[in-house]
Sequence to fold (635 residues):
Amino acid sequence: MARIADFREGFLTPELVHEFGHLDGITNIRDCYTALKLCCVINTLEKQLFSAPYASKDCDAKMAYFLDVFSSALTNPESHWQDWQDEYKQVTSGFDQLLLSPDCSVQLIKKLGFAVIQCPEPLHYYSLFSHTLGADVVLTMYDKNRYELECKYTQYIQLQSRPVWPRLDMAPLVQVLNVLELGARGPLKADNVGVGPVKGMAKSVRSLSSGGPLSTAAVEAARDADAAAAAAAAREEQGAAGMASSAAITAGTDVFASKAVAGSADSSGGMMGSGDGRAAGAGNNSNKEGEDVSEVAWVADRMTDTGPILRLEPKHAVRSGRSMLTKAQRYGHPCDRPFLSSSIPPPVMLAVVQSFLEFGLKGTHPKQGGWSWEELHAINDTLPMHTWVQTVLDQAASGAFSLPPTVTTAVSGTGSSNFLSPPLSPRMPSGPESHAIPLEPPMPIPQGLVPHMQGGPSSIVSSEDVAALVCGGALPARHAPIGGASRPWRLTYCTRQHGISLATLYRRAANVSPTLLFIKDTGGGVFGAYCSEPWRVGPRFYGSGETCVFQLYPRRVLYPWQRLAAQDGRHIQGNNSYFQFGTHSGLGVGGAGHFAIWVDNDLFEGSSADCATFGSPPLSSSPDFHVHSLELWAL
Fold:
């Protein structure tokens, strides 16, 4: 019950009981549903008979009343059917909707403790968060570009049952989102954006995708960003009430606030979302009649709040320092709150939030027992978040945030688009990726799944990378684990062990197949290919359709063979059998105009470009790269 009431998480399927039940000593799903019924009894009766939980009134009367009620409800939950059945039905139907509906999806990014939920309309907290077990930050994305980002209560306490990721102050994210909210409106020159000095860390932040260039108003927003953040810090030190993080955007509110413009994507495929100029209400919620909510701004609660929420608010609420939400709505469920539509498309919102978390959490790990406020302040105070802000704004100003018109149209409509499948990476490659397959390792990794690396371990790929390849479809079925155990991989060639020589690679790889090629470039990119035939020098391409290419960093994604070739914007049946190519000048994977991977005879320089054989974008950190290390493994 404490998990449901405090964390809003319930083990509502046998799979969840099997995976997480040991945390609470739960082995039977019936006990989980009984706990849910008891919570619903308390919620219903408290609402009918007493003050709200956050009011801190009549506590003694509540305790005396509920001790007696709880005893009878625990003994016979069905005797209180009339008290729990309405909320219970709401919770379970919402949970099942997320589990079964094609209009919904849940993505858990475990390496960040981050959950992303997409569904048409807001739901009960118990329905939503029961799908986010193990996550500490949740992004909910509803139709009509309505969003909330919430840090869970798990980060507020010293949680002993599992490791917890540190909480990040969302003020820098608020800062960027407000600039991007304005960015649908007009041009912005890259050299006019500035939020403070950049200290050479820009390349560590992955490229993002959004739509359209930024407006000149956004320039002013960026220039004022450091001053605004300083104002936020000052207000928090003075103990100012209200949303401290919103101070990061209230400095110059006229600059940060924007208009939720009606309509869908503009002709250039820009960031014009599905905002209709009104509050997009949850259920029957709507704003007061005659209230002008066309001007909006992003705000966030203090980091020290029990569960800080980042959301879109009307400009007048931001200016006054008061939320559009009543206290009952703030402490209630998302289905009881009104939402405003953003002009930021869903893929861009997801990419920006994920990039923010990746930058802020880089070099940290989840910790058993949680984090003290002293530790959290120390982490946030030392983060160079101005670098992240500057980099994102520079990318936007340079026009790097362009979504293809087909994607913009899909995410700007009023219907559901299930845009999280496959999940979007903040580093958006060029070219179509409708066939791309995300590679995510099972966590925790089952014993025996990662093969024994004979001659290893690898200096390029991690056990998570290997597990992702084994489970993600990169390897043909004949390489699947037998009895839960993978067959060993044998190191055939490695630049660190065998010298930097293409001739040596060919010699050691003669008559060896299939192989996995792994390359790490000096920009940090990790990528490679599954190659079905032995590497050899020859006048033409060879290999088979089992060949595929993949990227393992900055994201894990697989590109299988595309049997159809693209021509004049259409897909036609073609030969397109350009798999492996070996010469004395270098080796390549893919073809049909450009190699997916090419490395020269010195194994020093290489290139990666859009490749029609696999429909893949450039896989390396830049189209032309230098090899840091290269490995060839025999399966």
